[in-house]
Amino acid sequence: MTSVLSIQNLTKIYSGNTVLNGLNLEVHRGTVFGLLGPNGSGKTTTLSILLDVIPQTSGVFTWGSDINRKKIGSLLESPNFYSHLTAERNLKIAADIKQVPYSDIDRVLQFVSLLDRKKSKFKTFSLGMKQRLAIASALLGNPVVLILDEPTNGLDPQGIFEIRELIHTISSQGITIIIASHMLDEVQKVCTDVAIIKNGNLLVNGKVDELLGDDNIIVLQADDSEKLKSILEQRSDVTNIKPDLNKLVASFSSEVSADTLNKELFEEGIVLSHLERRQKNLEMQFLELTK
Prior knowledge:
The structure is a single chain. By secondary structure, the chain is of the alpha/beta class. 33% of the residues lie in helices and 31% in strands. The chain has a six-stranded mixed β-sheet with strand order 5-6-7-3-8-9, sandwiched between helices. A hairpin with a 2-residue loop joins strand 8 and strand 9. Helix 3 crosses helix 4 (127-139) and helix 4 packs parallel to helix 5 (157-172).
């Protein structure tokens, strides 16, 4: 796949503290790339460097040959518009800054489902609508790359759903999207690729499906959890066991029937009170990487 962005040994040091430590990444054209990590992990610092908001201490990054700053749309912070002005007037200001014709405003408002509110003042918008207007502003001029920093932060479930669907729609038009987020579930739902960072260090990166792997995960519970754990540890097909409150989460290297497992454990003297299949998610992967 064609590379849209190449990052090599990117480092940022603030007052002697290493915020970003030799980051190496490749973002390919047409992907939805998630930069995932807890608050303070270096996500926003990375995006700020990529947008030339702050300089790196060392290392380099290179955009594709057909990409200049005008071809990159971005939303780095909370929506920042004039509250007493209408959506249309705020976008006219953004269009002037970007040197984009006003004729593009209706297109982006339609795209984020706000065309019917173009004459409404920004202060009358809900938080989700404000976020969609900010994405509309980022889409002015038909960018080929869109950078979003915590796009669903602070939104209610409906607002999160709307932004998620909007990201899917934008991606379907061939726009490469780079998202920084600490919300593991949302990244899993919208991203094709992901890099997990912590304390400025890259832990892992790759396709979301590949990172989740094909482990068969089963959650079990019995009165005698220690005996249950001991029996599971003796099985050759169990690759990992970890506690989850009063339950055990076991990863199996191959498909195992719930009925067969229940029967085999019963024959070992274990009566299960809970047995549940669970799909591996980014949260589980993240916890395994950072434990």
